Amino acid sequence: MGEPEGLDYASSGVDIDLEGKSVASLVSALGNSVRTSGTPGAPVDLPGGFGGLIEFGDNLLALATDGVGSKLQIASQLNAWHGVGIDCMAMNVNDLLCVGAEPIAFVDYIATPRPDPVIHAAIGKSLSEACRRARVTLAGGETASLPEIVTELDLSGTALGYLPKGAAITGENLVAGDVLIGLPSSGIHSNGFSLIRKVIEVSGADLDAPAPFDSDHPWREVERFTEGEITLGEVLLNPTRIYCDPIVDLITACRNDSGDNSDERAPCSADELHAIAHITGGGLSNLLRLHDSLGWHIADPLPPQPEFAWAAAQGEINAKEMHRTFNMGLGMVIAVSAESASSVCEWLAERLAGTAIIGEVRNHGHQVTHVHPDVVYERY
Predict the structure, then answer these.
(1) Torsions phi, psi of 166, nearest 5?
(2) Is the pLDDT of residue 153 over 80?
(3) CATH number of the CATH domain containing 292
């Protein structure tokens, strides 16, 4: 018999390739908008798929919708709901940032087999904290009791943002030589948990026990909900980082670019911010969504949090699968002109420790390459 194969996302029940084909089928079957160009609500073409844009007078409105996913199953198992509203908010507003929009409002949707006032209160508190971090208004929501349809609580939401007409960040201005700036994640964030739960299953790990690795990391703090040593459950449920601060402030400063006061001067002009990618489901392959011919090289990756190495070892997951399923310590990527890279990176690092230059845009074909030779992606 040969060596046993390690785990991958497909074996845990999530086939990324099949999911992509299914989404493409859905999109191809959709009808055209009934709103005509020049009227409020008319669609605006947006490459990349991070959110959607519609016309609204002198501005564009941006919309994104997403959920927490199977991370909720660990929250349910531990009865720890303090971070799930933050996860839900982050998965939406972080996408809006990628088109250059400022998130302004959010609505949530909770589907449950049976309502529970205590759990709903905890989720409400979490959503309130999420609104504070994202600097948005919670404009409403819906709760549905669906005992014959859902077996566990599900949480999703939709975020609304806006930006001036003509100011969308789409990736169309990317050129070879642009510099990639990485913003650190707070951990696993809110994707890949079907695989994480499979790792827990095969390893026999105890979520309530102390983390089976040193959980310290220089650019994240685990948000506690127990006493004593940090548990594996606390590490895995650490809320997804919301990047409105500092990315909204960066975009706003660069658009205004007044610059009379050196303390407020923008690190570059708006037209030097060429692309932004949320490194979520699909991992580094998300970069391929930003341009249809240029490539991306990660020469100096940010150091992943220790839970990634633990998951890879316990599940015998190879490097390519890890970087396609998880963020591996990298939550967002901003591509800027080479001339502005140092000033933009310094400006961001003052506001989010761990931000660093990680690579560059290359004219080496439509692919993502990495300092690890096995980590290469040619399709999203």
Answers:
(1) 85, 0
(2) yes
(3) 3.90.650.10
pLDDT digit string, tens, across residues 246-277: 999 999 999 997 444 445 689 999 999 999 99
- Model confidence over 34-87: pLDDT tens digits? 788 889 999 888 766 677 999 999 999 999 999 999 999 999 999 999 999 999
Tokens of 50: 């991070």
Q: Strand locations in the chain, DSSP E? A: 43-44, 52-56, 59-67, 102-112, 137-145, 154-164, 179-184, 273-278, 295-298, 330-336, 356-362, 368-370
- Assign 3-state DSSP to the chain and report helix, strand, coil percentages, each to 5: 35, 20, 45
Q: Which pLDDT belongs to residue 279? A: 97
Which of 164, 189, 210 lies at the terminal end of a domain, its last residue? 164
Same domain, 267 and 365: yes
Q: Are residues 199 and 158 in the same domain?
A: no
Amino acid code (one letter) for 257: D
Burial class (CB in 10 A: 0-12, 13-18, 19+), 86: buried
37: nearest Cα among 160, 163, 161, 165:
165
5 located within any domain: no
The burial class, CB within 10 Å (0-12 / 13-18 / 19+), for 227 is exposed
Q: β-pairing, 154-164 with 330-336?
A: unpaired
Residues contacting residue 189 through CB under 8 Å, at least 6 positions apart: 87, 90, 91, 240, 241, 280, 327, 331
Q: How many domains, in total, are found in the chain?
A: 2
H-only helix segments in the chain:
16-29, 71-78, 84-97, 117-134, 193-203, 232-236, 244-256, 306-315, 319-325, 341-349
- Cβ atoms of 328 and 303 closer than 8 Å: no
Report the C-alpha gap between 248 and 51 in whole angstroms: 16
- 122 lies in some domain: yes
- Residue 311 and residue 7: Cα distance in Å, rounded? 10
pTM for this model (two decimals): 0.92
Q: What CA–CA distance (Å, rounded) separates 25 from 16? A: 14
